[in-house]
Design a protein that fits this description.
Length: 429
Amino acid sequence: MKRPLLQALALGVLVTFGAAGCGRTTFAPEREAATAFPGLSSDFLLGAEMAAALADFDVASAAPASSAATAAGTAPALEGPAADADACLRWNALTTVLAGESRLPPPLFARAYALVSVACEDGLTAAARAERAPGDGRCVVGGAAAEVLLELFPASAARIEQVLADDVAAARVQNTGAALRGLAFGRLAGRVAVRIARRDGSTNVFSGSMPVGDGYWTGTSPVLPACGTWRTWIATSGAEFQPLPPHAFGSAEDLADVAAVVDAAAQRTPEQIAAVHKWADRPPPAIWNGILNERIVGRRLSLREAARVQAFMNVAIYDAFVSCWAAKYAYWTARPFQRIPGLVTVIPTPNFPSYTSGHSTVSAAAAEVLAEAFPDEALFFHAEADEAALSRLWGGIHYPYDNDQGLEVGRRLGARVVARMRTGSRPAV
């Protein structure tokens, strides 16, 4: 695919600095990561591949620190004139729009957010290592996000490139060298993220078979049955965080769960119906990103702060989806409408097995990360996760045990992500 804007920007680097013998940007050759991403480097969510790519990267060749500010002894700030988080919010919003227009299933929606936000966070971390010539943060974020979005949504290349062009043009008004250095760092991180994405298993074809019998899900073309095998960011695999087995079909516990769905359907209140739509009318990754973005704006987070919490929350959501889908297609539990004749649901039942609840799992994981980032609102985030879980019972599409175990797995996985947030030698925000 031709990419005229990015090619033009690269040419601009060569024209501006070619007389000084610069203009060479090198990237590490493809290097196979270990069996999972985490633990390869304490500095980068992209792991050893990002560390290796940065080691082979010559920032001076991309754009030397020869601006008037540097010549006077003052390095350009990492974030340039954009001291706030506008760039992170802008690219997060574009990800939301493109994923929504593409009607991505929730796990793929979460994958898009995770890849974009991780590339942005690691690009900024890499740029911060450049000390006196770190580059403009808007261009780091733009370069990283654009590389990923062009890979995921090639049909929208013109829109993606226009947003990037606007970011780079605004940054060059203040400092051309910082803008081009930032773009180079961002593109470096974005390209590493793309390489990883191409082998994360998201195109795996399901090779198993559907079980047949009482209590099993029945239907055709279930959504993403191989998702539980996708590679994760913080968890070692989708199998690491798993729920207890579902109740045995026909057991007292199982029948009590079925009765609870019947009772909930008979006693729905307007408030409960509103909560069902609150959590179902948009994909849960978009809902939680909206909750986070409100805090980014309201608390006036810096670009570094915003990128960091976006990255960790989105990898938590993504890993939670992979873990949940591993359970769904391990147990193939029937949905309530498949067992309760005449059950009226508030919303359509998704086309995949019941156990466990995806909303419950990802909401609990997201709440753990947000509680770490904004501890004064921890109770609110946890209450939101609980409401997301209950909304699936009120809607008639999940049993209580689906939600309870989803919340439990999400909390445990979220705690692992929080532990990872607290480690590493990342520059202070």
